[in-house]
Design a protein that fits this description.
Blueprint lengths: L27 H5 L2 H10 L2 E5 L5 E5 L2 H9 L3 E2 L36 H10 L4 H22 L4 E3 H6 L1 H11 L6 H13 L5 H25 L10 H10 L6 H32 L1 H12 L4 H13 L9 E3 L3 E3 L2 E3 L4 E4 L1 H4 L34 H18 L4 E2 L21 E3 L13
Parallel strand pairs: 2-8
Antiparallel strand pairs: 1-2, 3-5, 4-10, 5-8, 6-7, 9-10
Helix pairs in contact: 5-7, 5-15, 7-8, 7-11, 8-9, 9-11, 11-13, 11-15, 12-13, 13-15
Length: 442
């Protein structure tokens, strides 16, 4: 970074000259295990310009200290209008279809003061009290989903569990009627299936979601009671705020609902999927956690979820940022309009910040990971995601204690894509529950 007040100075020494060529990025082999490549970049090219699979050229930031500074640097804008966009990059940053669907005015695309105003409104839905009140519903959903496959002795934990749990939870929070939630599940599924392929599949789902949300906002506004009921759904709260002079347009309300759904489900899908796989890969850590849960303790579960977020988190790269002026990072000159992507997965394994970063330690205490970002764009839904992750993993390990992979480890495939890191499927096996056996809900 530059030496202007309030920003850290650029590292004085240049990175050591590499003894081997730069690793190939964004291949299918890289997706399976990107961490060796990220270790190379951290050591030899901590701020690295690369051409992404989409053809867009961007800077990757891989060291923890640099990443944390970038995430809080106000010279890096979230607004794509600052992108010095060449013709071949048009429409290739951000979420596919959001421009055409008029869904650009959400928290991932705007800066203060609009960001401050909108975040203040939506933060009311994610207070510790509101999230705690939502806990029984998350447990109910968790048990219901496991009930559906417990007697089979096998399941795809992504399709049968990790994917539907956060979809139904965020739909409840937003106020999507139960009878419409399966439609949302279908649209969200299209986003995941096409996340690393043609953007058209995602764009079509975004368009359908936009149409539905516009209609739902209209219906809720027509039926909005004079006074809010306890636990009022988020869409109704956004409508009420706009009607009471908070200057929230209908487009902003729709975009806000959309991004909470879009960002609020896939991060939790990946937290549950990646976290379960990490525990299966490290049986001694899983057994520690199971023993702790059997004693009725929750401390190891809480620190364990944070460690899983650090070790192989759901968000590989932070969402797009664009330089609003020429600046220097890690000895590299970044041009005004250049895209900058913080590699959270690399920063969270930086040995300069974390002791034994490639070791999974569920009891790790010094764990200020960047899994949910940092600064004003820190994930507003992180408290709910943590709650869902804790309930999901605790219930799985308690109800299916001999959970094991149903395929060879090398057969697992990771979804393509740039921002998120998640498995396509996670086949598992376990001792089937007896027919009609109680779920042992707590």
């Amino acid at each position: 970074m530059s030496d202007r007040p309030g920003t850290p100075a650029a590292p004085a020494p240049s990175a050591p000259q590499p003894s081997a060529p730069a690793p190939e990025l964004f291949t299918w082999g890289f997706a399976t295990d990107p961490y060796p490549a990220y270790a190379w970049l951290r050591e030899h090219a901590p701020v690295h310009r690369t051409r992404l699979p989409s053809g867009v050229e961007a800077w990757l930031v891989t060291r923890y200290a640099d990443a944390k500074a970038v995430l809080a640097d106000q010279r890096l804008s979230k607004n794509p209008a600052h992108h010095d966009e060449p013709a071949n990059a048009r429409g290739k940053t951000g979420i596919p279809g959001e421009r055409k669907a008029d869904l650009m005015t959400h928290l991932l695309n705007i800066d203060p003061p609009d960001h401050t105003r909108l975040r203040r409104l939506v933060s009311k839905a994610f207070t510790p009290r509101r999230v705690a009140e939502f806990a029984p519903r998350v447990q109910e959903l968790t048990d219901r989903l496991i009930d559906a496959f417990a007697e089979r002795g096998s399941a795809d934990l992504i399709h049968d569990f990790a994917f539907p749990l956060p979809i139904y939870a965020i739909c409840d929070l937003l106020g999507v009627p139960r009878e419409d939630q399966d439609d949302f599940r279908d649209w969200a599924g299209m986003m995941i299936r096409h996340g690393g392929g043609p953007r058209g599949g995602v764009a079509r789902s975004v368009k359908k979601m936009r149409g539905y949300l516009a209609e739902l906002i209209h219906r809720k506004r027509e039926a909005l009671p004079a006074e809010p009921a306890p636990g009022e759904d988020l869409i109704s709260a956004l409508i009420r705020a706009s009607d009471e002079g908070e200057h929230l347009t209908e487009n902003e309300a729709a975009a806000m609902a959309f991004i909470l759904l879009f960002a609020g489900f896939e991060t939790t899908v990946n937290l549950i999927g990646n976290g379960t796989l990490a525990l299966l890969d490290h049986p001694e850590q899983r057994e520690r956690l199971q023993a702790s849960l059997a004693r009725g303790e929750r401390d190891l579960l809480a620190t364990g979820v944070e460690e899983l977020l650090r070790f192989d988190g759901p968000v590989e790269l932070a969402t797009w940022r664009f330089a609003t002026e020429e600046l220097t990072m890690g000895g590299q000159r970044i041009g005004a309009g250049d895209p900058v992507l913080v590699v959270l997965a690399a920063a969270d394994r930086d040995p300069e910040r974390f002791r034994d970063p490639d070791v999974l330690d569920l009891s790790r205490r010094d764990n200020q990971h960047l899994g949910y970002g940092h600064g004003i764009h820190y994930c507003v839904g992180a408290p709910l995601a943590r709650l869902e992750g804790q309930f999901a993993l605790a219930t799985l390990l308690t109800r299916l204690p001999d959970l094991r992979l149903g395929v060879e480890r090398e057969e697992l495939r990771w979804r393509g894509g740039l921002i998120m890191r998640g498995l396509r499927t996670l086949p598992v096996e376990f001792t089937p529950a007896a027919p009609g056996a109680p779920s042992d809900r707590k």
